[in-house]
Automatic annotation (TrEMBL), chain A:
Residue ranges of the region described as Disordered: 1-37
The protein's name in its UniProt record: MIP18 family-like domain-containing protein
Source species: Polyplosphaeria fusca
Family affiliation: Belongs to the MIP18 family.
UniProt-listed PANTHER family: CYTOSOLIC IRON-SULFUR ASSEMBLY COMPONENT 2B, CYTOSOLIC IRON-SULFUR ASSEMBLY COMPONENT 2B-RELATED
TrEMBL record, chain B:
Name this polypeptide is given: Nuclear architecture-related protein 1
Family under the similarity heading: Belongs to the NARF family.
Keywords, sorted A to Z: 4Fe-4S, Iron, Iron-sulfur, Metal-binding
Cited function: Component of the cytosolic Fe/S protein assembly machinery. Required for maturation of extramitochondrial Fe/S proteins. May play a role in the transfer of pre-assembled Fe/S clusters to target apoproteins.
Signal sequence coordinates: none
Source domain of life: Eukaryota
InterPro entries in alphabetical order: Cytosolic_Fe-S_CAF, Fe_hydrogenase, Fe_hydrogenase_lsu_C
A single GO molecular function term of this UniProt record: 4 iron, 4 sulfur cluster binding
The species this protein was found in: Polyplosphaeria fusca
Keyword Metal-binding: yes
Spans annotated as Disordered: 25-53
From TrEMBL, chain C:
Annotated segments matching region Disordered: 1-21, 94-114
Record's function text: Essential component of the cytosolic iron-sulfur (Fe/S) protein assembly machinery. Required for the maturation of extramitochondrial Fe/S proteins.
SUPFAM superfamilies: WD40 repeat-like
Skewed-composition ranges (Basic and acidic residues): 94-107
Classification via Pfam families: WD40
GO BP field: iron-sulfur cluster assembly
Gene Ontology cellular component list: cytosolic [4Fe-4S] assembly targeting complex
Name of protein: Probable cytosolic iron-sulfur protein assembly protein 1
HAMAP family tied to this protein: ciao1 (MF_03037)
Keyword set, alphabetical order: Repeat, WD repeat
WD repeat copies, ranges: 56-90, 123-155, 168-199
PROSITE patterns linked: WD_REPEATS_2 (PS50082), WD_REPEATS_REGION (PS50294)
Length: 197, 624, 433
């Protein structure tokens, strides 16, 4: 792998080659999607329950419409996220790839909690921004998916030289929550997500 | 051990993040001299000058500005200032013995030196000078079961003796002088007492000058806090900028030794500062940080400093006792078998200035008494200076809440003259800093303030008492400098002794993790070595503390006002004015330095958010 | 197999519209304080399940943890730990046992000042987010822990005059939780570095006396067993106990209260201190080398049990009932699980005796015969709908429907911003299916 500080020449995928269902997803978007989502976030951190229909009636009424959320839809949600360093999307840089996304059904019939697992592939194995990219993906999905989804973002095995440490940090809800209260970090995340329509 | 920087933290070091690697060419040559904002971020200041340049390198000052990766900074420090650095420098340069003799004239002009390459100089050669702290000697003395004087002799033998470093290496380079920092400390102690006197003087309005709080030309506010402990300074600058006005402006003995050597040799004897390589052997890793401060370079004292020229650090490299042993073993020298006798005086090269030679190499040396404490005795010397000025006054000591807090007061009859205190260790520093906070300042500004349930309650009284001290000797390590982070730890004793091929002297055997009792016993022995070793007691094999008795008996007696603890103020004052005279540098620039708030974020300006976030994120474990 | 049933009792109102982290019942009053990510603390009544006070305007970031000071007279003292790296102390004069007023329409400033929680002091020193804050049972010490890897112990010398008595930096990572032993000045901390560490005062310094390695992921929460539980839990049913069972009870008595922990590894574990044989007899043993004694401050904690695994994601919180010895856990999967300890069916005498022998020697065989077992007594799915549950705690039941003075409820706190009260009832034979 290129060991230079900046991966100046990352492999870029052609947008037309990226997997897409070419389907309008607007029906499932938050009404305040895009950057606007975060404006209220720094002062009043609230992202988990700002869905349009309020916190109390989240699951049952929505379940049907979200029943068919699959890997492609997850991919479509995170593909347009911008890389924090390059003016390219995570999909174009092949940081997120469709085969590395898995939606796992509830583990018990009594549970309605599904799990989304996204494995990201940083462009260079020592990328110090891996936790930031992972955080962006996690935030994007927690924003866009109904709360019955648990989002696990990991670095693909072998894709980063400290992947265990990065994974542990990304899995830690408390640290993710605290990071979202950090204005500088949120500024970067907001910018990364500004390309998500 | 300093709470901020300790070698124990190294295990969470991964690697410097992208944000830490800063191409050298983007660095401005010199920070603007009259910066409008005194609390400017330090990140953009120049890289340390004497380091070999590589395309991308971390400047230590950069690292200090970043709260996220202090451990990375430390790893770099350990790398830059290590026994390997000493070895490679010795191998790269032959030692210059008497470079001042190579040039005639005491009238050499500064420009001559500064304006670059002068054919007369042996550019390859360096004048190697070492300064050794008494705590390091004590640590080695306890380790090898020798006296502190013998440990000092062994260090001299290693650095300058025939069987030492000189015996091998590319050029057979070794150290021309080995200086006891206790000697230069005497100047620090006298100056510290003068500083307290000027702060307490009713004539002086503190911090009235145009400088920022913490600037070199301001008088510190009461209570004055010791600034010789770099762990404490690093913490204060990073976390408690509000206490900077209280810091003593005085340089530490390590820094002052460097300034003395380099200023006199360059200004008076035409040896450029870059040709003098000054190694300090210290009880503390954080001293490496101190050595890298941009305030402690030739820019601070060279008149008409040419900004195109690189500043030269007053102290080029700092190593600890353990690293000194590594240094010896890297050259296949068994430290324990070095001669314990002093170097022959015939081989001694005198310092070219006779007055300073007499100051640096006095015929007899003397260690501090137990009452002075293990950290240089600042507070004790100040107290004794005041006592000498107030005949019949008495010092009383009251223990604080733990062994690392002691409060002293000097009274004359019923009149209180001054109160001083010792605060060692991070937890006590917390209480000190909290006590110094303005009572009304609160980080919860929007909170509804409670009505005071107890007007004039005792909590207010407790806060006042800290502010009542004239001087507080603050050290980051519990137990003070003899327990510094760079000292040989109790857990290492057996290992080091085994490496050195010597048996344990006592029947003690350590199994598993040494407990607190072992630690305290080890520290007691190091302290014992530290407080022993004034020359007349060096023969005292059992090393008990009888020697302090005469000192103690004099404690409340009448003393000559000039001589305090055997240090003559007038002699030190004369020496300092002589120094200032021959160098043409003001005493302020020689003796004092400044402190500034360090932004705790990765440089807030001139850096994109992404870089800052990379800094946040790359501090693994500490990352967001 | 469940013998208990968790039934909804109330949702405390009004709910917050953002994540709540933790709810802590007052030691004597029918109050519960909830730490919220909206930077406030909400104090609810446990009799009416309604909001009494909202403490705001202090912290700049999420309030992560709260703790009531025990044994206060005439006032309630609340400590708050926040992501803004500071801790706050808040006080309110308590005038009567039941103040069930609502704050609506109160505009008189003086009146309000008097009745609200008032900020009284700030404790700063941590460099990063405070994750947990807790008073010692005596009220003498306050412990805090932070992402800066440190655990601090503060002592309140007099009202609002706090002194830092220790800064413990043993952990390699973020420290998630601190907990005090109910009888001794023994502090435990749990960390992102997967370990639990215990500290006590030796001479005038707090030092680590034990490091427990056992979990394979972040340890999120730890709690000590209550004091004197031998009278209340499975041990209370005296009578037909075997020799081994009596020995086991004695062993537990000598060990003192145990420690429970939960982790991202989805397990709940119980730890027990090895009784110090050496310490009891050291003075009498002339042959003991002096070197051993210096380690006497060290403690050995061994794994006493691993509870049945019922969570499939990270477990955020456990609570050990002081009344019944029942243990409740909750976490990311939204479940609340209650576990109960009971005597195991006796096997052969030989195995048991050998096991006890080994314990006495201070070496515990991994296959030690366990005298007791933990079973799942109740399991509740989707306690907060599909949201994660951050905290569940046992509390004394105080509402009108209370069936006995000792009845306990569980109060759970979730990402949905809700705080919910649950009753725990025995399943009647005809009702249990």
């Amino acid at each position: 792998m290129d060991r230079s500080k900046d991966n100046a020449n990352p492999t870029i995928l052609n947008a037309s080659d990226l997997p897409s269902r070419r389907r309008e997803l607007s029906a499932k978007k938050r009404d305040d999607g895009g950057t606007g989502l975060f404006d209220g976030l720094v002062p009043a951190y609230n992202y988990l329950n700002d869905p349009f229909d309020g916190p109390l009636s989240s699951s049952d009424s929505d379940d049907d419409s979200f029943e068919d959320i699959d890997e492609q839809e997850i991919y479509d949600l995170i593909a347009p996220i911008s890389d924090p360093e390059h003016p390219l999307s995570l999909a174009e840089l092949a940081v997120v790839n469709l085969p590395d996304i898995h939606v796992e059904p509830p583990t018990s019939p009594q549970s309605s909690i599904s799990t989304v697992v996204v494995e990201i592939t940083p462009t260079i194995t020592h990328c110090s921004l891996a936790t930031v990219i992972g955080l962006g993906v996690r935030v994007r999905l927690e924003q866009a998916l109904p709360p019955r989804f648990r989002v696990d973002v990991r670095v693909k095995k072998g894709a980063h030289n400290t992947d265990d440490a990065v994974n542990k940090q990304l899995r830690d809800k408390e640290r993710v929550a605290a990071a979202l209260e950090n204005g500088t970090l949120m500024g970067v995340i907001r910018k990364m997500l500004s390309t998500c329509e | 051990m300093s709470a901020i920087l300790s070698a124990d933290d190294l295990n969470d070091f991964i690697s410097p993040g992208v944000a830490c690697i800063k191409p050298i060419e983007t660095l401005p040559a010199h920070p603007p001299e009259s910066n409008s904002n005194a609390y400017e971020v330090t990140t953009e200041e120049h890289a340390t000058a004497s380091q070999p340049r590589t395309p991308a390198q971390i400047s230590l000052t950069d690292c200090l500005a970043c709260s996220g990766c202090v451990t990375s900074a430390e790893a770099v420090l350990v790398q830059l200032q290590s026994h390997n650095e000493v070895l490679s420098t010795l191998d790269a340069h032959p030692s210059l013995r008497t470079p001042w003799l190579a040039h005639n004239g005491t009238n050499g002009k500064l420009n001559n030196i500064l304006n670059g390459v002068n054919g007369h100089y042996q550019q390859e050669g360096k004048l190697f000078v070492a300064s050794v702290s008494p705590q390091t000697r004590a640590s080695l003395a306890a380790l090898f079961s020798v006296s502190e004087v013998e440990a000092g002799n062994m260090i001299n033998q290693l650095l300058s003796g025939a069987s030492g470093l000189r015996a091998s290496g590319v050029h057979g380079s070794d150290f021309t002088w080995v200086i006891d920092t206790n000697i230069v400390r005497e100047a620090c102690l006298v100056a510290a007492a003068d500083e307290v006197a000027s702060t307490l003087s009713p004539d002086v309005t503190p911090s009235s000058s145009t400088g920022f709080e913490g600037a070199i030309d301001t008088t510190p506010k009461q209570p004055i806090l010791t600034s010789a402990c770099p762990g404490w300074i690093c913490y204060a600058e990073k976390t408690h900028p509000e206490i900077l006005p209280h810091l003593s402006r005085l340089k530490s003995p390590q820094a002052l030794t460097g300034t003395l050597l380099k200023s006199v040799l360059s200004q008076r004897y035409n040896v450029p500062p870059s040709q003098i390589w000054h190694l300090a052997i210290m009880p503390c890793f954080d001293k490496k940080l101190e050595a890298s401060r941009s305030e402690l370079t030739s820019t601070a004292w060279l008149p008409n400093h040419d900004t195109t020229h690189d500043p030269v650090r007053d102290v080029d490299c700092v190593i600890t006792a353990r690293e000194l042993l590594h240094l010896a073993s890297a050259r296949n020298i068994s430290f324990s078998s070095l001669p314990r006798s002093p170097l022959p005086s015939s081989s001694r090269i005198p310092f070219p200035d006779p007055s300073i030679d007499a100051f640096l190499f006095p015929p007899r040396r003397k260690n501090q008494s137990v009452l002075a404490g293990p950290s240089g005795g600042y507070m004790y010397h100040i107290l004794r200076t005041y006592q000498a000025q107030h005949p019949g006054s008495e010092i009383s000591e009251s223990p604080g809440r733990n062994a690392d807090v002691v409060v002293y007061s000097l009274t004359q009859g019923s009149k209180s003259i001054i109160k001083t205190a010792r605060y060692y260790g991070f937890r006590n520093i917390q209480n000190l800093v909290r006590g110094l906070k303005p009572a009304k300042v609160s980080k919860l500004p929007g909170a509804r303030m409670g009505v005071s349930r107890r007007p004039g309650g005792s909590s207010a009284a407790a806060r006042e008492s800290v502010k009542d001290y004239a001087y507080v000797e603050v050290m980051a390590c519990p137990g003070g400098c003899t327990n510094g982070g760079g000292q040989i730890k109790v857990s290492e004793v057996e290992e080091v002794r085994a490496l050195e091929g010597i048996q344990s002297v006592n029947r003690e055997t350590t199994v598993g993790r040494p407990g607190l009792t072992e630690q305290k016993e080890w520290l007691r022995r190091v302290d014992e070595a530290y407080f022993s070793g004034s020359d007349e007691e060096s023969a005292d094999e059992d090393g008990d503390l009888n020697m302090v008795e005469p000192e103690a008996s004099k404690l409340n007696g009448l003393l000559d006002e000039d001589v305090v603890n055997g240090i003559s103020r007038s002699y030190i004052h004369n020496m300092i004015s002589h120094w200032s005279g021959i160098t043409g540098v003001s005493t302020q620039d020689l003796l004092y330095t400044s402190y500034r708030k360090v932004e705790s974020d990765v440089g807030k300006k001139k850096q994109s958010d992404v870089e800052r976030v990379a800094g946040l994120a790359s501090a693994l474990g500490g990352g967001w | 197999m469940s013998s208990l049933q968790i039934q909804p009792l109330a949702t405390l109102s009004p709910p917050s519209n953002s994540r709540c982290w933790q709810s802590v019942p007052h030691p004597s009053q029918p109050l519960i304080a909830t730490a919220c990510s909206d930077k406030t603390v909400r104090v609810f009544s446990l009799t009416s399940f309604t909001l009494l006070h909202s403490i705001s305007g202090g912290h700049k970031r999420s309030v992560r943890s709260v703790s009531w000071k025990p044994h206060t007279k005439g006032q309630s003292v609340l400590a708050t730990g926040s992501f803004d790296a500071s801790a706050g102390i808040w006080r309110r004069v308590e005038r009567g046992p039941e103040e069930d007023f609502t704050r609506h329409g109160r505009d008189d400033d003086e009146e309000e000042d008097d009745e609200d929680y008032q900020f009284s002091c700030i404790l700063d020193g941590h460099e990063h987010e405070i994750k947990s804050i807790v008073w010692s049972p005596s009220g003498q010490y306050l412990a805090t822990c932070s992402r800066d890897k440190s655990v601090w112990i503060w002592e309140e010398l007099e009202d609002d005059n706090f002194e830092t008595v220790a800064v413990l930096q043993e952990h390699d990572q973020d420290v998630k939780c601190v907990a005090w032993h109910p009888e001794e000045d023994l502090l435990a901390s749990a960390s992102y570095d997967d370990t639990i560490r215990l500290y006590r005062e030796d001479q005038d310094d707090w030092v680590q006396v034990c490091c427990i390695n056992g979990h394979s992921e972040t340890v999120w929460c730890i709690e000590f067993e209550g004091s004197g539980m031998g009278e209340k839990d499975f041990r209370a049913q005296k009578g037909e106990l075997s020799e081994e069972q009596i020995q086991h009870i004695e062993l537990l008595e000598r060990s003192g209260p145990r420690l429970a922990s939960c982790s991202d590894d989805s397990t709940v574990r119980i730890w027990r201190r090895q009784p110090k044989e050496g310490a009891d007899h050291a003075n009498g043993h002339a042959g003991v080398p002096s070197i051993i004694r210096s380690f006497s401050v060290d403690e050995e904690w061994v794994e006493d049990a691993v509870l049945p695994q019922r969570h499939d994601r990270v477990i955020y919180s456990i609570s050990w009932s002081r009344k019944s010895g029942l243990l409740a856990s909750t976490g990311s999967d939204g479940k609340i699980v209650i576990y109960k300890e009971r005597w195991k069916e006796q096997i052969s005498n030989g195995v048991t005796a050998a096991g006890v022998d080994k314990v006495v020697n201070g070496i515990e065989a991994p296959s030690r015969h366990r005298m007791t077992e933990w079973v799942v007594a109740a399991e509740l799915y989707s306690a907060h709908d599909v949201f994660e549950v951050n905290h569940a705690v046992w509390a004394k039941r105080c509402d009108k429907g209370r069936r006995s003075d000792d009845e306990e409820i569980i109060v759970s706190t979730g990402d949905d911003g809700e705080v919910k009260a649950w009753t725990v009832e025995e399943v009647k034979p005809q009702a249990g299916g």
